[in-house]
Design goal:
Helix content is 10%, strand content 32%. It is mainly beta and 351 residues long. Strands 5-17-6-12-9-10 form a six-stranded antiparallel sheet, with no helix packed on it. The chain has a five-stranded antiparallel sheet with strand order 4-18-23-20-21.
């Protein structure tokens, strides 16, 4: 959550710094390291110090994930001190939320038909919800307005993500995050806000034991975008493994979000933007057998976790077709993450 960003043309940096580095995040040497060493040796005698061998990696395999809750349904857990109230939106810095996410909430006092919602002060990316349903995405590098039909009394939630602070150049002091300007709809300024600073670290146990869970279900709009949600899964390491090996987490089918393993923040994933498709998991983060390891995914936009029953046919004579549908859904929409032993950090990008 604390990576930087390039500027001008705001460009968040990937979680991994492995791209073209001499040493990987795991501390392994690369071909580039070897070439650098060879080049230096042409001009200066190298010390006779042995190069440590690369550490072993392990593919722990697939971990089945289950929907836990929408983010908006567990605000008491994610923001235990409750909301901060203000007439106008406050930046993340004003409420000491230095990294990550903050949810801004407003209740409409009147109805709007085809009202143009404008949020020019989004820093940096925001999911917009009306009555907990995803109605669009706003971004400082893209669209900053949405057309909405809303009724008086409905709730507007804007979940804002800090994607990284500008770390060089003449805009280095222009680094406020959250909503840094007023939000308007049909040229009317929206006032009276609640702000929830969100903390996803070290909440797995409370989420697993919470009586809130199971009272909500995954919400998805007509375009397949979900209400930001939490998914969790658990696994054990091999019984014979004495020392936990490093690994890499691959999230095929997941679109954009944040991942935690045993409470440790691995970083953010956004494979459709690339180039990073895996997240490094140090072995020291993992618990040895028989202790459980917990994976928590905070998915913001789209997950592969569809309800298979929604695709089945009602006719009992179509059991064979249903079996094929179930198999297709299992392959196409496997609600899992995968621990692999090789990183993928050079994936395709849209640019």
């Amino acid at each position: 959550m604390s990576v930087g960003a390039n500027y001008p043309a705001y460009q968040p940096v990937p979680t991994s710094y492995d791209y073209d580095a001499a040493l990987t995040e795991a501390g392994d040497t690369t071909d580039k390291y070897t070439h650098i060493r060879m080049t230096i040796s042409k001009y200066k005698k190298l010390p006779s110090i042995p190069i440590p061998p690369n550490t072993p990696k392990y593919a722990y395999g697939a971990v089945h994930m289950k929907f836990v809750s929408t983010v908006t349904s567990i605000l008491k857990i994610l923001s235990p001190n409750g909301p901060i109230r203000s007439k106008h939106p406050l930046s993340m810095e004003q409420v000491c939320q230095w990294y990550g996410f903050m949810l801004y909430r407003h209740q409409f006092k009147k109805s709007f038909t085809k009202g143009l919602l404008i949020a020019r002060g989004v820093r940096d990316r925001a999911i917009v919800l009306v009555n907990q349903m995803n109605v669009g995405i706003l971004s400082r590098t893209g669209r900053l307005n949405l057309t909405l039909n809303v009724q008086a009394g409905q709730t507007l939630d804007i979940l804002v993500e800090n994607q990284g602070r500008i770390n060089f150049g003449n805009s280095i002091n222009d680094n406020k995050k959250g909503l840094i300007l007023d939000v308007t709809i049909s040229n009317e300024v929206l006032v009276d806000w609640e702000m929830f600073p969100l903390n996803f670290s070290k909440v797995e146990d409370e989420l697993l034991n919470s009586v809130i869970l199971g009272s909500t279900e995954m919400k998805k709009n007509l375009h397949g975008f979900i209400t930001p949600s939490v998914f969790m899964g658990q696994f054990t390491t091999p019984k014979t493994m004495k020392t936990m090996a490093d690994t890499f987490l691959k999230l095929d089918g997941w679109r954009k979000g944040q991942v935690f393993v045993n409470g440790y923040n691995l970083g953010r994933y956004w494979p459709v933007m690339g180039p990073q498709n895996t997240l490094y998991v140090p072995g020291c983060y993992l618990n040895p057998y028989p202790n459980l390891n917990t994976v928590m995914v905070v998915e913001l936009e789209q997950s592969p976790c569809n309800t298979q029953e929604n695709f089945l046919l009602d006719d009992p004579e179509q059991n064979e077709v249903n079996d094929l549908l179930m198999e297709y859904m299992r392959i196409q929409y496997d609600c899992s993450v995968m621990f692999v032993d090789v990183p993928i950090i050079n994936g395709t990008t849209p640019h």
